[in-house]
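Schema walkthrough. Field components (list of strings):
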Amino acid sequence: MTELSLADVTHGVGLAPLLRVAGLAKNFGERVACRDVSFEIWRGEVLGVVGESGSGKTTLLNCLSTRLQPDAGRIEYRLRDGRVAELFELPEPARRLLMRTDWGFVHQKPRDGLRLGLSAGANIGERLMAIGERHYGDIRSAAVDWLAKVEIEIERVDEAPLTFSGGMQQRLQIARNLVSRPRLVFMDEPTGGLDVSVQARLLDLLRGLCDELGLAAIVVTHDLGVARLLAHRLIVMRGGAIVETGLTDQVLDDPQHPYTQLLVSSMLQ
Amino acid sequence: MSEIASSETGGYNFAYLDEQTKRMIRRAILKAVAIPGYQVPFASREMPLPYGWGTGGIQVTASIIGRDDTLKVIDQGADDTTNAVSIRRFFARTAGVATTEQTSEASIIQTRHRIPEMPLTEDQIIVYQVPIPEPLRWLEPREAETRKMHALAEYGPMYVRLYEDIAQYGRVTTAYDYPVLVNGRYLMRPSPIPKFDNPKMDMNPALQLFGAGREKRIYAVPPHTSVKSLDFADHPFAVEKWDERCAICGADDSFLDEIIVDDRGGRMFVCSDTDYCRGCQSAKAAE
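Field assembly_structure (string):
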């Protein structure tokens, strides 16, 4: 691991990776979900995780976001103050705080990530209130700002997301996650259930937001088109292990591993 | 130390509960006083009245009452409603203690839904009957999760509820059981008292005990402890106000009940605290 020693020597904050995963493994009984997964992600980088369904992508995402306890391996995260912490060695309050402030999690189905009974404004404001914002006017103006950013009419701030279309719900979920200015966002098939034109608009929006906010993101998808549009770098998974990794264009245009070649060749043109 | 049943208590142990049970409840109360606002589980007993009628309050009162105590029981502020009368009579029979309807004379006040208008003193204990002790109940259905939220003081979702109220109605519409933060740490349900009474809990010199019989929880606010009603900086907490005065005593500073007096739309406003109203009337008569 040459990068490791480089980061240690330079000690520069900009040079250390945001998240470093080493030897991560997770089994469900006899079944292997992830094995020996190692990679790094840097500030402002969008990492795509692709592979067929059942290849361990979502399990990997759940382990990284501390929603699942891995069986082996280390996940190191660089906190805002520059300290590097092993996620599962952090005390639970610190981990929960991290999930509410520094991270976002965009679910495939918006109803998993939204509170459907609450208004759109409350959905966006929830994180702010959770981290101690106690000024109604400020919370509301932040909610309105974010609705505008994700291209939802601001008049709908008091309406429940149940009355929104699928694409709007997904955009609301993104706004709800980004309002606390996270540095790392986990996305599980963010464009999953959407039709193609809505997908394109959402991808456009996501790309814009990632650039604007300097956001790092780990995007799990089985759609190579999404990966090509969004990700800077790709990880190809199969049977719980990484089979190939590299720059997105490089992996998609010149796949080395037979499985990647199969994936790319089966992509609809 | 067991109390010998006397003939005046009709064969019951003093104050109905056996001494072991009282001891267990006193332990829970001590812990509750030590951690203001924290809900202490306790082994709630079956009581000779249904849940929802004050089984928690009765158990707390039975555990702290002594032979020299004077008991007052109110229900919605009144001394003469069914719940108040039956609980008062229960302790008169099983403990033989003196009872009163006057706030100033009582050493223990058991209450449902009100705090007396007359300020309490250091020599008094007020016992609240609590139906639902968990303030996060309607926000988070999992009990394990609410406990974790209390442990980590994650009270953001409670503010989400206030936000929704203001967004929908322009003000916080919660009028009773208004959530409070005790001693800057634990979120607490003050039992269904009107929010009019919330400011009385703050820095109150009396010991405040809360008993929830069905939910098997006891919590407490020790004397002189801060009790802050949740609010937003730009929507500060405010209590109800009336344009009317009490139709009987003329008081303008007490919590008023609206009473429909006929079927032609006639109505009157009277003090909900009957003892306070009586006091005002006799003061007026003396003038």
